[in-house]
From TrEMBL:
InterPro entries: Aminotransferase_I/II_large (IPR004839), AON_synthase_class-II (IPR050087), PyrdxlP-dep_Trfase (IPR015424), PyrdxlP-dep_Trfase_major (IPR015421), PyrdxlP-dep_Trfase_small (IPR015422). Belongs to the class-II pyridoxal-phosphate-dependent aminotransferase family. BioF subfamily. Its cofactor is pyridoxal 5'-phosphate. Keywords: Pyridoxal phosphate, Transferase. One of its GO terms (molecular function) is pyridoxal phosphate binding. Residues 36-387 form the Aminotransferase class I/classII large domain. GO terms for biological process: biotin biosynthetic process. Gene3D superfamilies: Aspartate Aminotransferase, domain 1, Type I PLP-dependent aspartate aminotransferase-like (Major domain). This is 8-amino-7-oxononanoate synthase. It comes from Amylocarpus encephaloides.
C-alpha cells in the first residue's frame, strides 16, 4: 500500500500533472554511450579530449598535495594561491583588469545583478537573456528593470532615451554575445555605441559570454575581445561548462567591482569554493587556448557548420522544418510544429538532438536544437541530415495520405446531401 500524500505533496503533484497534460513536463534522462552527440554544449569536444585528460592528470601529479575539497567558502578556508593565480591567468587572457571565480554562470549572474545595480539604477536586458540574470534582478536594488526586443537596436535606443529622460541613476544594458536557443550573435559594437551616445557616461554594458567563450575571437578570447570592446564593457561573464568543457565561471570586471562582489555577492559568499580538480580542469584548457592548441578544433567546427547549413538548404521546401538563415555559430534551431516527434525519431536512430518547447522558448517557436561539435565528423553530419530528410519525407507522405482520406470522406458525406 502506497503511503498517503500530505496536502503539500498533493499540491505539488497537481502542478506536475498540469505540466504533463500540456506536454511540458521535464524529466531527467540518460544518453546511450553509442549515440552521436548533436546536443551538448561541449562545442570543442574538450570534455572528452584525450589530450585535455592527459594534461589534467599531469596537472594533478604536479600538485600531489592537493585537497579533494576546498574546505570552505572563498572568504573562509576555501581560497588558495592556485585559485588566485588562475583568476589572474583568466584576466590576462581576456584582456581584463581582474577576474573573480564563481561555481557556475548561474551563481555569477544572479550574484552580479543581485548586488551591483544600486537604488535608482535601471537595468534593460535583451528579452532572450539567461534566466540567471532575471533571477538576480528579482533580488536587485535597482529601481526598475525591463527588456528590449531581441537584438532590436531601434527598440533599445528608444528605451535608453526614455530611461535617461526620467532617471538620474546608472543604466545597465545586459546582453548575451551568443544566444543559445537561436545561435545568433548580438550586435555588440552597435549596442556599445548606443549606450555611450545616449547614456552620457552613466551606461554600463554587461555581456554574458557563456556560449562564446573559447569559440570566438583570437584563440577563443570571446566576442567582446573580437570586437575590441574590452574597455567599453563594464563586466563580462565567461563560463567554463560549454566551450571550455569544464565547469564554473568567472566575472571579468574592474578591481573595485571585484572587491564589491567579494563583499556583497551572496552566491560567492555563502557557498563552498570550487575544488582543486575543478580549478585544474579549467587551467589546462586555458593553457591550451593560450598556446593556440584549440585553433584546429575551431577550424574543423567552422567547416562542419558550413557543411550542415549547405545540406539543410538542399532540403525540399516544407512547412515541417524552417531552415535558419546563414549560421553565425554551430547552434542550429530547426523550427518545427512537431519538435518532440522529430527529436525522438533522430534519437532512435542514434543521433542525440533535443526538442526545445515552451516555456523555454515562446509558444510558436518550438524547435529541435542541433549543436555541432569539433568531435563530430563530416560523415556524422551527413548521417544526421539523412535522418532529417527521411523524417520530412515520411511525415509529408503520412500527411498527404490523411488529407486524401479526409477528402474522400467529405465527398462521401456530401454525396447524399447533393441528391436531396
Amino acid at each position: 500500500m502506497a503511503p498517503s500524500r500530505s496536502p503539500l505533496e498533493n499540491t505539488l503533484s497537481s502542478a506536475l500533472s498540469k505540466r504533463e497534460s500540456k506536454s511540458v513536463l521535464r524529466a531527467l534522462t540518460t544518453t546511450p554511450q553509442t549515440s552521436i552527440d548533436f546536443s551538448s554544449n561541449s562545442f570543442l569536444s574538450l570534455s572528452t579530449s584525450l589530450l585535455v585528460k592527459e594534461a589534467f592528470l599531469k596537472e594533478l601529479s604536479t600538485n600531489p598535495s592537493f585537497q579533494l575539497g576546498s574546505g570552505g567558502s572563498r572568504l573562509l578556508d576555501g581560497n588558495t594561491p592556485y585559485a588566485e593565480a588562475l583568476e589572474q591567468q583568466i584576466a590576462r587572457f581576456h584582456n581584463a583588469d581582474s577576474a573573480l571565480l564563481f561555481n557556475s554562470g548561474y551563481d555569477a549572474n544572479s550574484g552580479f545583478f543581485g548586488c551591483i545595480p544600486q537604488n535608482g539604477d535601471v537595468v534593460i536586458y535583451d528579452e532572450y537573456i539567461h534566466a540567471s540574470v532575471r533571477e538576480g534582478l528579482r533580488l536587485s536594488r535597482a529601481s526598475e528593470s525591463f527588456h528590449f526586443i531581441h537584438n532590436d537596436l531601434e527598440d533599445l535606443s528608444a528605451k535608453l532615451e526614455n530611461t535617461v529622460r526620467h532617471s538620474n541613476g546608472n543604466v545597465f544594458v545586459a546582453v548575451e554575445s551568443l544566444y543559445s536557443m537561436d545561435g545568433d550573435l548580438a550586435p555588440l559594437r552597435e549596442i556599445a555605441g548606443l549606450v555611450e551616445r545616449i547614456c552620457h557616461g552613466r551606461g554600463c554594458m554587461v555581456v554574458d559570454e557563456a556560449h562564446s567563450n573559447a569559440m570566438f575571437g583570437d584563440r577563443g578570447q570571446g566576442c567582446v575581445h573580437e570586437a575590441r570592446l574590452e574597455s567599453r564593457v563594464f563586466a563580462r561573464l565567461h563560463t567554463f561548462g560549454k566551450g571550455v568543457g569544464a565547469s564554473g565561471a568567472a566575472l571579468l570586471c574592474s578591481k573595485v567591482t571585484r572587491e564589491y562582489l567579494i563583499n556583497y555577492a551572496r552566491p560567492l559568499i555563502y557557498t563552498t569554493a570550487m575544488s582543486f580538480p575543478s580549478l585544474a580542469a579549467i587551467k589546462v584548457v586555458y593553457d591550451l587556448m593560450e598556446s593556440g592548441g584549440t585553433q584546429p578544433l575551431l577550424n574543423h567546427l567552422q567547416s562542419l557548420t558550413s557543411q550542415f547549413h549547405s545540406l539543410l538548404r538542399s532540403l525540399p521546401s516544407t512547412t515541417l522544418l524552417t531552415i535558419p538563415p546563414i549560421p553565425q555559430s554551430p547552434i542550429f534551431s530547426l523550427l518545427t510544429p512537431r519538435p518532440r516527434v522529430l527529436a525522438k525519431y533522430c534519437q532512435e536512430r542514434g543521433f542525440v538532438v533535443r526538442a526545445i518547447v515552451s516555456p523555454t522558448v515562446p509558444v510558436g517557436t518550438e524547435r529541435v536544437r542541433v549543436c555541432l561539435h569539433a568531435g563530430n565528423t563530416f560523415e556524422e553530419v551527413e548521417g544526421l541530415m539523412e535522418v532529417l530528410r527521411e523524417w520530412v519525407q515520411l511525415t509529408e507522405r503520412k500527411r498527404s495520405k490523411k488529407l486524401a482520406e479526409k477528402d474522400v470522406e467529405e465527398v462521401r458525406n456530401e454525396g447524399p446531401k447533393a441528391r436531396l
